[in-house]
Structures are given as structure tokens and as C-alpha cells.
Write a structure and sequence with these properties.
230 residues, alpha/beta, Rossmann fold, Arc Repressor Mutant, subunit A, 2 domains, 5-stranded parallel β-sheet, 4-stranded antiparallel β-sheet, 43% helix, globular
Length: 230
């Protein structure tokens, strides 16, 4: 990557914040530490960011609230890095719009690899040449604007949700297994973590249904995977 990549690190523990910033610098990117949700909001208002690393237990505005605010306005990738280990918290954050969830204590090399991986995907979505509009029923994907519309109303998809939906829209008759979908979108080996795919598909369905509850767009092919519903 030749352009400057800016990553906001929202973590109130000074030692952990410094460690994350060090990882980011070693990867060739530019970190900006923030030690509270309120401070992070100030940085978000002043500049554009390519990624956010976000702790949940923050002073002032919580990480949960900050995540909700960010995903309502921007599709930039957000990686949660938290000491909260329970599955419901992880699922809740993914449903809210987080792209990944890493638990503390974390492995430095794993964090480094995940940062690189998410940035590659995000840049592929935002910088690839536009091809064509994808249309199915009353839903339309504008690959130039990187946006999804139903009856002209824009949906607020995260970067990951957008990429999954484009995959389905581009091959409307194909059944994508969870392995197909994961390896196509995440660009990583699939180890059978069905929950990750399930959560993102559920998020996409919910956002589609919020605009048009009378229509079903994604079909579950039991024992196989997912495809667009005709």
C-alpha cells in the first residue's frame, strides 16, 4: 500500500494501547491512540480513518455505544479487542457491525495478520473499478457507489456485509456453502466456524427486511448454504 493508512486505536489501558500502536507501526501504518470513547468521537469528527481497533470497557462513552455510532455513519472495518470472553457479547458486537472480535490476552502476530487482512478487503471494496449495477427483485447494488438500495432507499451495510451481499448478487443462481462464502470474503481458511457466517447473514436479512418486510431476498438451502431467493 502506497497511501497513508490511518488506524484509530481506542483503548484506555496505556500499555495495551502502546502495544497496539507498535503493531500498527511495524505493519507500516499510522496509529492514533485514543483513551476514551469521547476522545475517539473527537478524532472521528476531525479526520477519516481506514480502520478502528476498539476496546469495549471504556471511560465515558462505552465501546458498545461508540460501535453503534460509527457503523451508523461509516462502513470502515472495526476490530473489537476486548477482555470480555462470553459468546453473547461477541455475537452482539458482530450483529451491531463489528468486522472481527479478538479476545485479550491476544497474540501479537494474530492481531497483525488480522489488521492486514481486513485492510486488504476494505481497500478492495472501496478502490476496485466499478463494473455494473446488480439488480434482483427491488434491490440494487451500485458497485460504483458501493451501496445497496431497496426501492431507492439506501441500506447501511458494513464493509463485510456489503461484500457478502455482492457475492450473492453476482451469482444469483449459485448456492454458496459457508466454506465458499467464508473463504471468498474473508480470504482465509475456513475451520468450520458457522457462527461468523450466520451472524452476518442474519444482519443482512434484518437490514433488508427493515425496508421491505414483505419480501425474502436470501434463501437458506438446508444442508448446503445460501443463495438469492427467486
Amino acid at each position: 500500500m502506497t497511501e497513508k493508512v490511518n488506524i484509530l486505536v481506542v483503548e484506555d489501558d496505556d500499555a495495551i494501547n502502546q502495544l497496539l500502536c507498535s503493531i500498527i507501526k511495524k505493519n507500516g501504518y499510522f496509529p492514533q491512540p485514543a483513551f476514551s470513547g469521547t476522545e475517539a468521537m473527537l478524532y472521528l469528527e476531525k479526520a477519516e480513518w481506514d480502520m478502528i481497533l476498539l476496546d469495549l470497557m471504556l471511560p465515558g462513552m462505552s465501546g458498545d455505544e461508540l460501535l453503534t455510532n460509527i457503523t451508523a455513519q461509516s462502513p470502515i472495518p472495526i476490530i473489537i479487542i476486548s477482555a470480555k470472553l462470553d459468546q453473547q457479547t461477541k455475537i452482539g458486537m458482530l450483529r451491531t457491525g463489528a468486522d472481527d472480535y479478538i479476545t485479550k490476552p491476544f497474540d501479537i502476530e494474530e492481531v497483525s495478520a488480522r489488521i492486514d487482512s481486513h485492510l486488504r478487503r476494505y481497500q478492495r471494496i472501496t478502490r476496485q473499478p466499478a463494473t455494473k449495477r446488480l439488480v434482483h427483485k427491488d434491490v440494487e447494488v451500485d458497485q460504483d457507489a458501493k451501496a445497496v438500495f431497496i426501492k431507492g432507499e439506501a441500506l447501511n451495510f458494513t464493509a463485510r456485509e456489503y461484500e457478502i451481499f455482492v457475492l450473492l448478487m453476482a451469482s444469483p443462481k449459485k448456492v454458496f456453502t459457508k466454506k465458499n462464502m467464508f473463504e471468498s470474503v474473508w480470504q482465509e481458511t475456513y475451520y468450520g466456524d458457522d457462527n461468523t457466517i450466520n451472524v452476518h447473514i442474519s444482519n443482512i436479512r434484518s437490514k433488508l427486511a427493515a425496508v421491505n418486510p414483505e419480501e425474502d431476498y436470501i434463501e437458506t438451502v438446508w444442508g448446503m448454504g445460501y443463495r438469492l431467493k427467486t
